[in-house]
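Re: the 163-residue chain
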Amino acid sequence: MEIERKFRIRRLPESLEQYPYLQIEQGYLCTKPVVRIRKSNEDYILTYKSKDVNTKNSTAIQNKEIELPLQKESYEHLKEKIDHKLIMKTRYLIPLSLERTAELDVFSGHLKGLIFVEVEFPTVESADTFQPPDWFGEDVSMDKRYHNTYLAQIDSAQELLEG
Protein backbone atom coordinates (compact mmCIF):
# COMPACT_ATOMS: atom_id res chain seq x y z
CA MET A 1 0.00 0.00 0.00
CA GLU A 2 1.30 3.44 -0.90
CA ILE A 3 0.11 6.33 1.29
CA GLU A 4 1.43 9.77 0.42
CA ARG A 5 0.77 13.50 0.46
CA LYS A 6 1.98 16.06 -2.09
CA PHE A 7 2.72 19.73 -1.55
CA ARG A 8 3.75 22.71 -3.60
CA ILE A 9 6.72 24.43 -2.05
CA ARG A 10 7.16 27.96 -0.68
CA ARG A 11 10.93 27.93 -1.10
CA LEU A 12 13.67 25.44 -1.89
CA PRO A 13 15.70 24.08 1.00
CA GLU A 14 19.24 25.44 1.11
CA SER A 15 22.09 23.51 -0.50
CA LEU A 16 20.14 20.83 -2.36
CA GLU A 17 23.44 19.32 -3.50
CA GLN A 18 24.04 18.05 0.06
CA TYR A 19 21.17 15.56 -0.24
CA PRO A 20 21.18 12.23 -2.04
CA TYR A 21 19.17 12.26 -5.25
CA LEU A 22 17.83 10.04 -8.00
CA GLN A 23 17.69 10.79 -11.72
CA ILE A 24 14.27 9.48 -12.73
CA GLU A 25 12.50 9.02 -16.01
CA GLN A 26 9.11 7.39 -16.17
CA GLY A 27 6.37 6.70 -18.64
CA TYR A 28 2.92 5.19 -18.62
CA LEU A 29 1.76 2.17 -20.59
CA CYS A 30 -1.74 2.58 -19.16
CA THR A 31 -3.38 5.05 -16.76
CA LYS A 32 -6.52 3.16 -15.65
CA PRO A 33 -5.18 1.14 -13.92
CA VAL A 34 -1.73 2.69 -13.80
CA VAL A 35 1.01 0.64 -15.41
CA ARG A 36 4.25 2.59 -15.23
CA ILE A 37 7.86 2.02 -16.20
CA ARG A 38 10.60 3.87 -14.37
CA LYS A 39 14.33 4.25 -14.57
CA SER A 40 15.73 5.45 -11.24
CA ASN A 41 19.49 5.90 -11.60
CA GLU A 42 20.42 2.40 -12.81
CA ASP A 43 17.33 0.57 -11.50
CA TYR A 44 14.47 -0.32 -13.84
CA ILE A 45 11.00 -0.94 -12.45
CA LEU A 46 7.56 -1.89 -13.72
CA THR A 47 4.80 -0.64 -11.40
CA TYR A 48 1.11 -1.48 -11.25
CA LYS A 49 -1.06 0.87 -9.18
CA SER A 50 -4.75 0.81 -8.40
CA LYS A 51 -6.74 3.22 -6.27
CA ASP A 52 -7.69 2.06 -2.82
CA VAL A 53 -11.46 2.35 -2.46
CA ASN A 54 -11.14 3.46 1.19
CA THR A 55 -9.67 6.92 0.50
CA LYS A 56 -12.59 9.03 1.70
CA ASN A 57 -12.14 11.33 4.70
CA SER A 58 -8.37 11.39 4.36
CA THR A 59 -5.87 13.97 3.17
CA ALA A 60 -3.63 11.25 1.72
CA ILE A 61 -3.42 9.58 -1.66
CA GLN A 62 -3.78 5.83 -1.17
CA ASN A 63 -2.90 3.27 -3.82
CA LYS A 64 -2.34 -0.43 -3.94
CA GLU A 65 1.07 -0.79 -5.58
CA ILE A 66 3.08 -3.68 -6.97
CA GLU A 67 6.64 -3.14 -8.20
CA LEU A 68 8.63 -5.59 -10.29
CA PRO A 69 12.24 -5.27 -11.43
CA LEU A 70 12.93 -4.89 -15.14
CA GLN A 71 16.05 -5.48 -17.17
CA LYS A 72 17.43 -2.43 -18.97
CA GLU A 73 16.58 -3.99 -22.35
CA SER A 74 12.96 -4.58 -21.29
CA TYR A 75 12.69 -1.00 -20.03
CA GLU A 76 14.06 0.39 -23.31
CA HIS A 77 11.64 -1.79 -25.30
CA LEU A 78 8.63 -0.70 -23.22
CA LYS A 79 9.73 2.96 -23.29
CA GLU A 80 8.97 2.98 -27.02
CA LYS A 81 5.37 2.01 -26.22
CA ILE A 82 4.43 4.60 -23.58
CA ASP A 83 1.36 6.78 -23.93
CA HIS A 84 1.97 10.52 -23.94
CA LYS A 85 5.29 12.00 -22.78
CA LEU A 86 8.22 10.70 -20.76
CA ILE A 87 8.54 12.44 -17.38
CA MET A 88 12.06 13.40 -16.32
CA LYS A 89 12.96 14.65 -12.86
CA THR A 90 15.62 14.80 -10.20
CA ARG A 91 14.31 13.55 -6.86
CA TYR A 92 16.12 14.88 -3.81
CA LEU A 93 15.75 12.79 -0.64
CA ILE A 94 15.57 15.25 2.25
CA PRO A 95 15.28 13.85 5.79
CA LEU A 96 12.51 15.43 7.85
CA SER A 97 12.83 13.15 10.89
CA LEU A 98 13.99 9.65 11.69
CA GLU A 99 10.75 8.31 10.18
CA ARG A 100 10.05 10.72 7.29
CA THR A 101 11.81 11.75 4.11
CA ALA A 102 10.66 14.52 1.79
CA GLU A 103 11.00 13.56 -1.87
CA LEU A 104 11.53 16.87 -3.67
CA ASP A 105 10.92 16.49 -7.40
CA VAL A 106 12.57 19.02 -9.71
CA PHE A 107 11.28 18.36 -13.22
CA SER A 108 13.10 18.80 -16.51
CA GLY A 109 12.15 18.24 -20.14
CA HIS A 110 8.62 19.33 -21.00
CA LEU A 111 7.88 19.98 -17.29
CA LYS A 112 10.91 22.22 -16.63
CA GLY A 113 10.03 24.76 -13.93
CA LEU A 114 7.72 22.44 -11.99
CA ILE A 115 8.78 21.55 -8.45
CA PHE A 116 6.81 19.82 -5.72
CA VAL A 117 7.42 17.54 -2.78
CA GLU A 118 5.81 14.36 -1.56
CA VAL A 119 6.05 12.39 1.65
CA GLU A 120 5.15 8.72 2.10
CA PHE A 121 3.59 7.36 5.29
CA PRO A 122 3.13 3.96 6.91
CA THR A 123 -0.49 4.66 7.90
CA VAL A 124 -3.36 6.92 6.92
CA GLU A 125 -3.42 8.28 10.46
CA SER A 126 0.21 9.40 10.27
CA ALA A 127 -0.47 11.05 6.91
CA ASP A 128 -3.52 12.88 8.24
CA THR A 129 -1.68 14.21 11.31
CA PHE A 130 1.54 15.18 9.49
CA GLN A 131 2.68 18.73 10.17
CA PRO A 132 4.68 19.89 7.13
CA PRO A 133 7.82 22.01 7.57
CA ASP A 134 7.59 25.71 6.78
CA TRP A 135 9.22 25.35 3.35
CA PHE A 136 6.25 23.25 2.20
CA GLY A 137 3.38 25.12 0.58
CA GLU A 138 -0.18 24.22 -0.39
CA ASP A 139 -1.28 20.59 -0.01
CA VAL A 140 -2.10 19.37 -3.54
CA SER A 141 -2.58 15.70 -2.70
CA MET A 142 -6.13 15.61 -4.03
CA ASP A 143 -5.44 17.87 -7.04
CA LYS A 144 -5.31 15.48 -10.00
CA ARG A 145 -3.17 17.97 -11.93
CA TYR A 146 -0.24 17.03 -9.67
CA HIS A 147 -0.53 13.32 -10.40
CA ASN A 148 2.21 12.08 -12.70
CA THR A 149 -0.36 10.43 -14.98
CA TYR A 150 -1.75 13.91 -15.70
CA LEU A 151 1.69 15.50 -16.01
CA ALA A 152 2.63 12.99 -18.73
CA GLN A 153 -0.29 14.27 -20.81
CA ILE A 154 0.35 18.03 -20.76
CA ASP A 155 2.70 19.89 -23.08
CA SER A 156 4.46 22.07 -20.51
CA ALA A 157 4.64 22.99 -16.83
CA GLN A 158 3.07 26.34 -17.75
CA GLU A 159 -0.27 24.55 -18.28
CA LEU A 160 -0.21 23.51 -14.63
CA LEU A 161 1.37 26.65 -13.18
CA GLU A 162 -1.05 29.00 -14.96
CA GLY A 163 -4.13 26.83 -14.53
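The chain has a mean pLDDT of 93.
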